[in-house]
What we know:
The complex is a heterodimer.
Chain A: H1 5-10, H2 15-25, H3 31-41, H4 43-46, H5 51-54, E1 64-66, E2 73-76, E3 81-89, H6 91-96, H7 98-114, E4 119-129, H8 137-155, E5 159-166, E6 175-185, E7 200-205, H9 214-217, H10 221-224, H11 227-230, H12 239-252, E8 258-263, H13 268-280, E9 283-287, H14 300-305, E10 311-316, H15 321-330, E11 334-342, E12 346-351, E13 354-360, H16 361-364, H17 395-403, H18 412-415, E14 426-428, E15 435-438, E16 445-451, H19 454-459, H20 461-477, E17 482-491, H21 498-518, E18 522-528, E19 541-550, E20 567-571, H22 582-588, H23 600-615, E21 621-624, H24 629-638, E22 643-647, H25 656-661, E23 668-672, H26 677-686, E24 691-699, E25 701-704, E26 708-711, H27 712-719, H28 722-725
Parallel strand pairs in A: 4-5, 9-12, 17-18, 22-25
Antiparallel strand pairs in A: 1-2, 2-3, 3-6, 4-6, 7-10, 7-11, 8-10, 9-11, 12-13, 14-15, 15-16, 16-19, 17-19, 20-23, 20-24, 21-23, 22-24, 25-26
Chain B: E1 2-7, H1 14-23, E2 27-32, E3 43-46, H2 66-76, E4 80-84, H3 86-94, E5 100-102, E6 110-118, E7 134-141, E8 145-147, H4 150-158, E9 162-167, E10 186-190, E11 196-199, H5 217-224
Parallel strand pairs in B: 1-2, 1-3, 3-4, 4-11
Antiparallel strand pairs in B: 5-8, 6-7, 6-9, 9-10, 10-11
Amino acid sequence: MKITNEVVEKHGLKLEEYSKIKILLNREPNMLELGVFSAMWNEHCSYKSSRIHLKNLPTKGKQVIQGPGENAGVIDIGDDDAIIFKIESHNHPSYIEPYQGAATGVGGILRDVFTMGARPIALLNSIHFGSPDHPKTKSLLNGVVSGIGGYGNCIGVPTVAGEIKFNNTYNENILVNAMAVGHVKKDKIFYSKAKGLNKSVVYVGSKTGRDGIHGASMASAEFDDNSENKKPTVQVGDPFTEKLLMEACLELMKDNSIISIQDMGAAGLTSSSVEMASKGDLGMELHLDKVPCREENMTPYEMMLSESQERMLIILEDGKENEAKKIFEKWDLDFVVMGKTTDTNKLTLKFENKIVGEIPIDALSTKAPIYDRKWTKIKLPEKKTKIKDLKKIKLQDALLKILSSPNQSNKNWVTNQFDQMVMTDTVQKSGSDAAIIRIHKKEKAIAVAVDSSANYCKAHPHTGGKQIVCENWRNLISVGAKPIAITNCLNFGNPENPKIMGELAECILGIKEACEFLDYPVVSGNVSLYNGTNKKNIHPTPVIGGVGLLLNINNRVNQCLKKEGNLILQIGKNFGQLHQSIFLEEIYSIVEGPPPEINLSNEKNNGLAVLNLINKNLVSSVHDISSGGLILALAEMTFNSGYGINISKPKNFFNLMEYFFSEDQGRYLVEIEPNNSNKISKILNDNNIFNETVGVVQKNYFEIDGELKIASNDLYETNNTWYNNY
Amino acid sequence: MNSSVIVFPGSNCDRDIAVALEKLQFRNKMVWHKDVDLPKSDLIVVPGGFSYGDYLRSGAIAAKSNILNEVIKAANNGCLILGICNGFQILTETGLLGGVLLRNKNLKFISKDVYVKVINTENRFCNKYKKDQILQLNIAHNEGNYFTNKEHLKELEDKNLIAFKYSDENGNLNEENNPNGSLNNIAGIFNSKKNILGMMPHPERTIDQVTSNVDGVNLFTSLLS
């Protein structure tokens, strides 16, 4: 088949890129080689638009064992323990086929973690849907939620935290990001770098089918002749096989048979073999006749580009093949020696005793295109809305409306479909600022949370990027954990549009500044571009997944009120900023102006002070103030506590709405015993930390003198209704 | 007391139950599904999970496995058998326990803490509980909707073969607190000799105050006494 311009474009490559391929090869590629190039040079695998910006992110730190560039990031949590984690997107497939798209998203991220030797101990997700009124939203929500649950529940890893948001920016392009966290002994971490010549390259796991071939490379010219096969197929997940693969890999990892290991994710056999060879500065020869196929007459092109799930590529030490094979046979999985490492620095593909493709490894990796795309700076929007010009609404009505809105509603309907308890180390489930997972059979634990704020990022990406790192940091602090490192999933629109590229560049800049200041490095991540169309891009939606450490599990706190008569202290200053707030959006449908300002210095001081109070056992509960402001945070503290709050009216504020609904950052609520009050004030004042008492814990009622009085149970019920009625 | 936990491909609560048994001083062994011999056991646990992916029908393939023949023999000789969640489904598929577990009435996977009432305490599994005691246990299943024929249901009630029923926190049995649609709110049942218990809630998830509560502990200490 001749490679025409049309064929090149169908492979998602630009004509200039094709010219570059010809130069690198010094000839025209054949179809198989073109397919391999398209798989490696696409945005998903090459990060060609984002790479020059990503390299500015801080990726090192005292506790970082492995930063970006491996299957996942690794951090040191003391003793001989390490935590491996990463977040990844599965947006496009989930919109086409929500159940399988979401399920395979979970499967893929789990493989990234156990490939490195870790046993997965927690799953998280960040999912964004279009407006609840959009005709597709309900079925997408149902499909995605059952897909996430279907995979995690079956494989037996608890799904412990996440976020679900609705916004019409996602009407045509939902976001499904999944994060996995695993635990490993420091001396048992496995990497993907190949080492040594003539070592066996082994294929293990499921058989290869024709699913997902379009995934990285889109359609191919070969399929044109046969329209039946051209139907795009989303990968189909099999959590049962993944469970077997995980157990088999972890069993093999107990001894020293493995030189390197890589899961076959996006671009399957192609990217796994190229990445291993590239990192090891070696070549690799693969015999495609040996690939276990589940369909007949599969071509080398299909085998190299299939994204069938639950497969791994392993390079073994000499003489370990039989032992390793026994383990995979025990688990009823395929195990095939299909190639070897070579000194040619080429990927050599053989089929039916012929070389059917041969490409220098560096042409697929280090020499892949990198773009410094044009981008425009985004100005901070002006403050236009003035609260005094808006139609008046009662505080109580506003609170109840926000509490019952889709984005602020209790998410039990969703989380009750996820097994949160399996592995029996879940100390704090979802529904709090962060989930807490105990390290098996130890006294320490990790805290995990995922966050995003698309409206803030849309308004001003630079501030939004900073804000979302800070919010995630705050969430970990709020349960008593010292934040250690993050993974990020950057969901953006079309990078060829300079405005969108500007959103990406400036969000990354914001993330960088916050991470540097908070000593909160990025250890892994994923970029998902082209969300939406050029005309209608999604809001910039960077998602941050953070991991923190609790050295002593007994020092944990949650947001539930504990005792009548206790005082509630607000830490951090309230400036009454309402722009881009949930209040203006839900009550007046106004989404404009700048996002709340970020003062990194205050953020850090306030957070470290709260952590200090927690570690000194001076606080009974803690909650961060975020979407919905002070009053929503106060309301959430009453949920499931059996208590209410008598809330003080502000002394200095002109407008109650600004006081109660502002989303000024760097703020926490802490519940304290009155007799500790002086001691705590002294600690805070000595550190120049603004604090004031905002309420007293009381029985049954949530009230502000003269403004509102609601039974705490009713408040909870109001928060609990939306999903059940949707 | 010697216990054995059967491990199928796809079991995922096998480690959890082993941790619980060891914590409560059982001498426990893990038994792989392809094994043909059972170690000497006073208690055999068929744990939760998705044995063989639960393809075909939950528990159906596991019920035909090698090791289940040995479990059936042991059960018929009076060995104590505990099937939890998928284990309960497997035991009904083998016929060791009557009835079936249908899909949950809301057709969704349900994972949450529920209240159950201890109905029968005169047996090896529940003797440390008080009659009508209310426990808070965790459930996590897609097919936990217990169903059986009228005669068998009558037999279960008349002969006091129901171990646990879903209830509210005060022990009231009603539809509102029946999470999955089980007949008569049934959460766990015995065979007629009461040496076999199948239950949907996971007692191994409630043995530690740090992660939950300790309402599951007495099920294990009952067995030891």
